[in-house]
Amino acid sequence: MAKAPDMSPDFARWYADAFMDEGATREARWKGVTNIAAKGGFMEAEVLARLAFQTTVPAAGRKSEDLGDTYKTVVTTLIGGSSLDQVQSARELQILAAAALTRLFQRLPDAALAVTTTSFSGMRKLDLPMDLVGLAENAIVSFSQRKHERVGGDKLKLTDPVIAFEVAPEAITTMDGNQWKAQFDKLHETATAAIELVVEEQNRINALLHRRLMLDEEELQMLWWLVGGNSRLLEQPFPKLDPLVRPLALAQELASMTSVSPGPTSIRAMLSRAGVGIDKLALRDAVNAANADWAKSASSSKRISPATTPIHFALEQRSELGSTETWQASWTSLTGLSADVSLPGAKLAELFYREFLFLHVGE
Question: The GTPase-associated system helical domain covers which part of the protein (predicted)?
């Protein structure tokens, strides 16, 4: 079993300050946090976000959600094989989940996206020893910059394979059949290893080129979309779009063109250029303004969550209930948010964009 990384000073401080423990229990918890961070994916990010934000909807999921096994694995791993104090278990799991998310920010864009969408522009409050949302925002910027870097030519060069083989002198001297067979077997092994190295390098270069092509196509599609100034979804020029419809519709169009999560750093600028402004809109009005057919298609994912994708969940509730008047009550009871909440159009669009990436694009 791999040794856990040395305990980070941040985690040591967070745990000691919260639970007055600097001994074996803290070590076990640190091991659990690093194990989750090493293997966790989008489902673990969903559970961890619910634990960290202590959302109204349970971290183990509703009956219609397939999160039970993931939740059990996350909790068992986080506590590192030791027991939980029942009095402070919720608080401890909250801090451990947040710590695991900060570690996941180093490699998993979905973790950072999930934290920012669950926060819902600060409408869900946190009481944690770290600025979890701020760290998530920084991680998104870092991911966007790293994943959109141009690959240097030196990274696209194959190294010359070396076949380190010489015929043994005794084989030449004796010309013995068995010795020559052994020599040919050794040559075969050495040549095979060299070929495998070439294939591995070529696959690495192919992956870099494929990612570059994806990013080039993403940039080209977004550029033509902006230059054209026309909504493909609503078949109208940007200026003629209903201001209530514009944030969600244009955010989905941009998100559907995004190939690599969490998208380019220029998303906010592109939304602004497309006419998504900073005037505040009530979530209720934006959801109700959406075309019923589009609301249904936009909320077709089986992974839609009241916690991490509350805007998609609002569209799902509206579509399922078939009414613009009745979805708010169930939505509020499961999200813990008010449907009357108002956000700047640009922020609403950005959140919807990030929710789409979390649901459909992934790593």
Answer: 193-358
